[in-house]
Amino acid sequence: MTRPTDILLTALAPAIWGSTYLVTTEALPPGYPVTLAVLRALPAGLLLLAVTRCLPPRAWLGRVFALGALNFAIFWTLLFVAAYRLPGGVAATLGSLQALIVIGLARGVLGTPVRGMAVLAALTGVAGVALLLLGPEAALDPIGIVAGIGGAASMAAGTVLSRKWQPPVPALSFTAWQLTAGGLILLPVALVLEPPLPPLDAANLAGLAWLGLVGAALTYWLWFRGVARIEPGAVSMLGMMSPVTAVALGWLWLGQALSPLQALGAVIVLGSVWVGQVINRPRLRKAQVTSGRALSA
């Protein structure tokens, strides 16, 4: 596939993740964050394992559980801590720092060059998310701040290492391994820290089905597929699509007001995402052509 197609498919993942807040608040019982994370990750991972019929080799187990922890167990736990202790706008703005962290980690882990315009695009995107979501009620709880930054760092590390550790299997199998590992890590935490879920009604089951089948199995397959094909700095910028979708759904579905400042923030975010794709475009082909011309001269 062409790079624009890969970008569009990968962008679907964070765009769909933007529905998580709406589904969680409107369709799921409150007060069970870790249990709901288990029910989102583990059944989806086991389903994909049944479909792919591909288990990780023993040599890959350590890497798979490390990625499952970074991309799911640690990330989702810190995400919920930040969401509980901070206004949603503050938590989302801290989460958007992931793009900057990826740029730094990719330089150290993958040797990817740091481009000044890429850093500027990421900073502009963070500013756009802040305009989109921050309000006068924004509060700075220290634990929430640490959790928000830690969650962004966990997902950033998982993204970079998922690019570095590419097993010789399709992206769907790689997604199944990570979701299952993340769910297994979270399962004992949920059993120890949270009470049993109350009886679930049809709306609860529908919400869990959406978050598991679409918000986990489908979207993380698209995400890890994109991580393997798109430059780390470019793919990390796509994560900023999530707060844009969340605000749009709040406006369309819940009737929440959308101020001109928020609309400006959405435009800035979308613009920074586009610039991030252009700036982080691979330059290897151009260098190879130049080198080939020099050798033939």
Automatic annotation (TrEMBL):
Record key words, sorted: Membrane, Transmembrane, Transmembrane helix
Xref: InterPro entries: AA-Vitamin_Transporters, EamA_dom, EmrE-like
Chief place where the protein resides: membrane
Subcellular location: Membrane
UniProt keyword Transmembrane, yes or no: yes
Bilayer topology: Multi-pass membrane protein
Regions that span the bilayer: 32-52, 64-84, 90-110, 117-136, 142-162, 174-193, 205-223, 235-254, 260-279
EamA domain boundaries: 7-133, 143-274
UniProt keyword Transmembrane helix present: yes
Gene Ontology cellular-component annotations: membrane
SUPFAM superfamilies the UniProt entry points to: Multidrug resistance efflux transporter EmrE
Recorded superkingdom: Bacteria
Pfam families from the UniProt entry: EamA
Family: Belongs to the EamA transporter family.
Protein name per Swiss-Prot or TrEMBL: Probable blue pigment (Indigoidine) exporter
Classification of source organism: Bacteria, Pseudomonadati, Pseudomonadota, Alphaproteobacteria, Rhodobacterales
